[in-house]
Amino acid sequence: MRTVLGNYFRRGWQRNLAVLWFGCFITGFGNSMTMPFLPLFIDTLGKFTPWQLNILSGTAFAITFLAKAVVSPAWGRLADRKGRRVMCLRAAGVMAVTITAIGFTRNVWLLIVLRGIQGGFSGYINNAQAMIATESPRDKKGQAMGTLATGQVTGTLLGPLIGGFLADSFGYRASFFIAGFLMLVVFLTTIFFVHEDFKPIAAAAMRPIKKVFHQLTAPRVLIGTFITTLVVQASASSIQPIVSLFVRQLLHGRGDVALISGVVSAAPGMATLIAASLMGRVIDHVGPQKILNIGLITAVLVLVPMIFLQDVKQFIFLRFLFGLSDAAVIPAYQTLMTLNSPADAFGRIFSYSQSFQAMGSVLGPMLGAMIASVTGYRSVFVLTLVLEVICLGYVVFAAKYPKRKAAA
C-alpha cells in the first residue's frame, strides 16, 4: 500500500489510481469480512432447522452475485453516458447503506433483500478498472491494471481475518457497522480526490452493443476475456464448499483443521498479491496475450498434481502456485480487454466482464459442491482443470483467428 501511495499519489491518472486502489481494497475488505460468519448471523435471526439454515445462507450468498450478473450491463450503459466516477459513487454509497442496514436487521428475509439490493447496485471495482484503463498511458496499462488488482485481493484476504476478530470480540453486527462506515469513507474519498475527464454521451448517439461487437477488429479476443473472467472466478470459488472437509481428510481428522484451511484458502490470494503488480510490468514489455497463455498453461500444470496430492503441505504449495498463475492471468485479460474495447463502450464491456465474474461466483461453489458430493473432493480439481483447459483452448484459438473471415 505504501508503494502505491508513494509512487502514484500525484495529479492525473496516478492520483486516481491511488485513491481507487484504496476504494477497491475497502470494497473487497467489506464484502469479505462478513462472509465467514454470515450463516452464524442468520442463525441468530430465528429458529431454523439445519436444512433451512443451509438454504437461507446459500440464498443470501448467491442473490448478491445473481443480481450483479443481471443488472451490470444496464449500469455499464449508464457509465458510458455519464462517466465511471459517478458509478463508483453510486456503488460505494449504496453499499454503505445496505451493509449498515444489515447490521440493524432482525429478519432474515430483509437481510436477503438488502443483499440483493447490494448486488444490484454494486460495481465500484469494475468502474474503477474502466476508469484506470481509459486514463493510463498505453505503455503503462499492464502495470496500472496489475496494481489495481492487488487492492481487491488485499482486501479480500484481510477481510475474513479482521471480520472474524470483530465478530468474536464485539458480536456479529459490529462487522457490518464497521464495513458500512468504511464504505462511507470510500464514497467521500472518491468525491473529493477522484477526477475524471469525461464528456457525456447522449443516449441517441450511443452505438448499440451489437454494433460495437460487429465493428471490433478482434471480437473473439474480447469474448475470450469474458470467458477467462468466468473461469478464473469459478476456479477460485469452486473449492470453497469443500476446502475444510478436504483438509480434514488429508490430516486424517487430526490437527488444527480450521487454521490450516484458512492458510489453504489464503495461499492463492497471497501469491496474487505478491506477483500481480510485477506481472503488470512484464505485460507492458512482453504483451498481454503471451502472459495470458503462460498463466493459463501454468494453472493447468498445477492442477494436474493437485488431483493426486496426499499431503496438506503440498496442497498449500500448489495453491500458492495456482495464485501465481492468477497473478499473470488477471492483469493480462484486463489489459487485453482494455486494448480491444472502443472508448465509447468501455463501461458496458467492463460491466459485461463483471457479469461473467458474478456468474463464476455462483457456478463455481454450486458445481464444486455437487461434484464433491457425488464423486469425492478430488473431482473438484478435475472440474477446475477441465474449465482451465477449455478456456486456454478458446484463448489460443481467438488469438489466432480473432474475427470470422466473413466479417473481416
Provide the CATH architecture of the largest domain: Up-down Bundle
Query: What is the typical, i.e. mean, pLDDT?
Result: 86
- CATH superfamily caption of the largest domain: MFS general substrate transporter like domains
The sequence of SSEs as H and E is: HHHHHHHHHHHHHHHHH
Q: Helix- and strand-based class?
A: mainly alpha
Q: How many whole angstroms does the radius of gyration measure?
A: 21 Å
Helices, by number, come to: 17
CATH class of the largest domain: Mainly Alpha
For the termini, the CA-CA separation is 45 Å
Give the helix level as a range of percent. Answer: over 70%
Q: How large a portion of the residues is in β-strands, by DSSP E?
A: under 5%
Oligomer: single chain
Number of strands: 0
List the domain count as a whole number: 2
Q: What are the segments in which pLDDT stays under 50 over at least 5 consecutive residues?
A: 1-9
What does this entry look like structurally?
This protein is mostly helical and 408 residues long. It has two domains: 195 residues, MFS general substrate transporter like domains (Growth Hormone, Chain: A, Up-down Bundle), CATH 1.20.1250; 194 residues, MFS general substrate transporter like domains (Growth Hormone, Chain: A, Up-down Bundle), CATH 1.20.1250. It contains 17 helices and no strands. Helix 2 runs antiparallel to helix 9. The chain starts with a helix and ends in an 8-residue tail after the last helix.
